[in-house]
Amino acid sequence: MPGILYHLSFAEEVFRKLSPTSIDKISFMSGNLIPDLATDKKVSHYRRNASVNGFFVPDMEQVKKDLFVPNNPIVFGMYSHLYLDYYFIEEFLIPEFIWDTKEMKVINPRNNNQWDVKTFFSHSGMYGAYTEINQLLVKDGHVSLSTVKEIPELLPNTGIKVFDTRRDKTWKSELKEYLAQKKDYTGEIFDYDRLWNCIEKIATQFVQDISK
Fold first, then answer.
1. For the chain, what is the total number of helices (H) and then of strands (E)?
2. Which of 104, 126, 180, 202 could be disulfide-bonded to 87 (CB atoms 3.0-4.6 Å)?
């Protein structure tokens, strides 16, 4: 569920924490983008029910069996993408709000703002909040645009059919659109510091997990 800039910033943070490493950075960053390009996201994201009804997260046991290949930086990057998806939803998004499934409302306990579910999962809700934070991730150097320029627009094939059957729109086209959206940060939905601290924590956890 995190957007492209979140996955790029997570990949950068993981790479920093792994340094020094023999993993090729551009290949690893490329792999972090691939799962969201698949036309069948249900399969490419190994979806199963999350801890709150209505959310889906990757089945990390199966993801690890299929994609935990540290000597293949592209496939390992795909594993990293799904790792962030799982823990971002379970450790940030779900705990950050009150999910009133009876009244079909989402409540932010930090400010008592509330939304109906449809509005929350829209560009005037959560996706707009992602846009607010995109600019901050770039400004604070969590996403290196110089590194992003080195990633090929047409990402390499993986040899895994579901990941190689991709939509026509490239990731760079999508990124360009996101960066063109200028939206001032309000913090009404997401608190930037809390969100980034969670991403950093997940990156630390990722590095610890792979060293076990």
1. 12, 5
2. 202
* CA 158 and chain centroid, separation: 19
Establish whether the linkage from the previous residue to 58 is cis, with ω within 30° of 0: no
Closest Cα to residue 84, out of 102, 106, 67? 67
CA distances from 198 to 48, 192, 201 (A): 22, 10, 5
Decide: 179 and 134 in contact? Cβ < 8 Å: yes
Give residue-wise pLDDT tens across range 123-157: 989 999 999 999 999 999 999 899 999 999 999 99
Model pTM? 0.96
CA distances (Å), 147 to each of 2, 27, 38, 44, 141, in order? 20, 11, 23, 25, 11
Cα separation of 19 and 197, whole Å? 20
Strand partners, 135: none
Provide Rg for the chain, Cα atoms: 17
